């Protein structure tokens, strides 16, 4: 039931789910979808430099890997860049 990401807070980490299930929810819209191993979250706040757009809460015991903004910018952000 823990929430590593809370809507409206500053975003400083990117996460990948290694095991377990998590739910994405937004205050205005409620539960949006379920995340499973291999899914990721936290990229929107880091790529757009905005507060978190949703909350993520564990539905089952879960393990996530995460990286800080500097590591995200160096290794992950290029994967989200548009191909030109």
Task: Give a quick precis of the structure.
It is built from two helices and six strands; from the N terminus they run ββββαββα. It is an alpha+beta fold.
What does this molecule look like?
The protein is of the alpha+beta class and 84 residues long. The chain is built from 2 helices and 6 strands; from the N terminus they run E-E-E-E-H-E-E-H. Strands 4-1-6 form a 3-stranded antiparallel beta sheet. Strands 3-2-5 form a 3-stranded antiparallel beta sheet, with no helix packed on it. Strand 2 (22-26) and strand 3 (30-35) form a beta hairpin. It starts with 12 loop residues before the first strand and ends with a helix.
Q: How would you classify the quaternary structure? A: single chain
Low-pLDDT stretches = none
Lateral arrangement of strands in the main beta sheet? 4-1-6
Structural class per helix/strand content?
Answer: alpha+beta
Q: Which overall shape is indicated by the principal axes computed on the Cα atoms?
A: globular
Name the helicity range.
10-25%
How many helices does DSSP assign?
2
Beta fraction of the residues? 35-45%
The biggest beta sheet is recorded as: 3 strands, antiparallel
H/E element order:
EEEEHEEH
End-to-end C-alpha gap? 41 Å
What's the number of extended β-strand segments?
A: 6
Average pLDDT score: 92
Rounded Rg: 13 Å
């Amino acid at each position: 039931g823990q929430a590593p990401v809370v809507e409206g807070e500053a975003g400083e980490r990117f996460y990948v789910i290694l095991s377990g299930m998590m739910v994405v929810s937004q205050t205005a819209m409620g539960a949006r979808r379920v995340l499973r191993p291999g899914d990721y979250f936290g990229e929107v706040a880091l790529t757009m430099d905005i507060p978190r757009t949703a909350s993520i809460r564990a539905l089952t015991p879960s393990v996530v890997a995460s990286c800080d903004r500097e590591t995200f910018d160096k290794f992950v952000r290029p994967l989200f860049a548009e191909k030109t």
